[in-house]
Amino acid sequence: MSKTIVITGAGSGFGALAARALARAGHTVYAAMRDTGGRNADRVAQAEAYAAEHGVRLRTVELDVLSQESADAAVGTILAEAGTLDVVVHNAGHMVTGPTEAFTPEELAAVYDTNVLGTQRVNRAALPQLRAQGHGLVLWVGSTSSRGGTPPYLAPYFAAKAAMDALAVSYAAELARFGIETSIVVPGAFTSGTNHFATGGHPAEQTVIPAYEARYAGLMDQVAQRLAALAPADADVSLVADAIVEIVDAPDGKRPFRVHVDPANDGSEEVSRVADRIRAEFLTRIGLADLLAPQSVGERTEAPA
């Protein structure tokens, strides 16, 4: 069944690939990105060209996850054009690299703003519609760094992704009685096919860098090279888009809570399996097992005795 989908941060990387894959699967997809009339104008043109060439419903919408006003306007545009919204894909993110000490608190807050608070702004814009219609899917694009291998010099990004994962887990229970599903896609370290490393930020303050460079000379390049070496030769970033399509196309109420796409196998899947089992067992122990899966319209909505 065709769905109307919005994907944040869909100008490049996972977001752009997923938008195209979902459109090819027959869905109406809004590839959300900021500054569609400026620096991302070429990406808007590319999406339009792709839609025309393949005869798919791939559209773009202006959405800056740093602005509640922008998120509200984007959802309003989608509802005005499509009349509905079925799936929200939280994909927008920003990576920074460098010694953790070198980043100011304000720089860490900026990473948190994009990767975590941005999802909250989009949820506040979209969830009233999903709750009112009694169904929907919120799909979060996380990172194996939340629970798997964590190489150094990526702490602000890792911390933000861990926070986003925690937010997603809490939302899953809070949305279940509205009939809204939650799925978390957990990509591993894809060092090619995305712009994460190429467009990643660096600390503006450079005074402590020499001290770290003296002890950890060339470490960031070493990390990137070694992560790339871990990935099998056939590890294609499109695997993440394929996983997103498979989740969206799964029957309502039958979607997996978490799906790992980690060719390098950094251990996150094993740790998450334990954490998600404990979550399920604990909610069951305290009489809230109904929060582990969305309830269909017409099912009991009262809290269990």
How would you explain this protein's 3D organization?
Strand 2, helix 2 and strand 3 form a beta-alpha-beta unit. The protein is globular and about 60 Å long. The protein is an alpha/beta fold and about 300 residues long. It has a seven-stranded parallel β-sheet with strand order 3-2-1-4-5-6-7, with helices on both faces. It contains nine helices and seven strands; from the N terminus they run βαβαβαβαβαβαααβα. Helix content is about 45%, strand content about 10%. The mean pLDDT is about 90.
Any descriptors?
alpha/beta; 9 helices; 12% strand; 305 residues; 7-stranded parallel beta sheet
Helix content: 40-55%
- Estimate the global geometry from the Cα principal axes: globular
Mean residue pLDDT:
92
Q: Which structural class do the helices and strands define?
A: alpha/beta
Oligomer: single chain
> What would you report as the Rg, rounded to the nearest angstrom?
20 Å
Number of helices: 9
What is the terminal separation in angstroms? Answer: 36 Å
Provide the spatial order of strands within the biggest beta sheet.
Answer: 3-2-1-4-5-6-7
Binned strand content: 5-15%
| Sheet having the most strands | 7 strands, parallel
